What we know:
Layout: H1 5-12, E1 15-18, E2 21-24, E3 34-40, E4 44-53, E5 57-62, E6 81-92, E7 95-106, E8 111-116, E9 118-125, E10 129-138, E11 142-146, E12 151-161, E13 168-179, E14 184-191, H2 192-204, H3 220-244
Parallel strand pairs: 5-8, 10-14
Antiparallel strand pairs: 1-2, 3-4, 4-6, 6-7, 9-12, 11-14, 12-13
Amino acid sequence: MxxxxxLLMAALAGAIVVGGGVNTYAAEKPADNVQxxxxxxxxxxxxxxxxxxxxxxxxxxxxxxxxxxxxKKPLKKPVNGKVKVTxxxxxxxxxxxxxxxxxxxxxxxxxxxxxxxxxxxxxITKFKTIEKKDDTLAKGxxxxxxxxxxxxxxxxxxxxxxxxxxxxxxIKTNVEVKDKVVDEVILVGTNExxxxxxxxxxxxxxxKKAKVTLPKAGSEAEIITLSVAALSxxxxxxxxxxxxx
Length: 245
């Protein structure tokens, strides 16, 4: 059974045959990001769709963020694209032939996010204390020959960032010696003879006598002393005269 050209075109346009008549039905609901517009003629069915193209996201490395951290704000905001698609369906020799033409209305622009790809760690190395015996020093004497200093090393780890997934790969490490560690050297005296000599010198050293401070001339103490002396002299003279009489 051959369908007439009219019925075939009606079927392609979304029509059904019921009891010898033609009743149309609603086509499937298009996707949210597709706008549909149909223009039909007896021989040609034309459908126009406006499709929204989601913008891709790209990633790039940043040494300002923590390792593996993705920036909260995009370095560049993504812009979705729009494409006008014209679908033409023709019936040629009873066969359906489709043609599609695309027209870019808005070119999509990729959004860019930064990903932290560097980690810097500071490592401190404590200095050691080394004791060395020295017979030129008296026994028990300790003397610092070399002052100790802690060392500092900077470890830097860097990764490449996959521009599509944002994942880290291809690790690279770098070690920088900022300060070299210097061990502290302490000389420890072992000379017992020298120690005894120093002890003898300390024993023979005379003690300083305490200074007696005399009162200054004209002071109150001096006046009292002179007054007492004068009274004693006067009393002695009086007793001597009395004996002579």
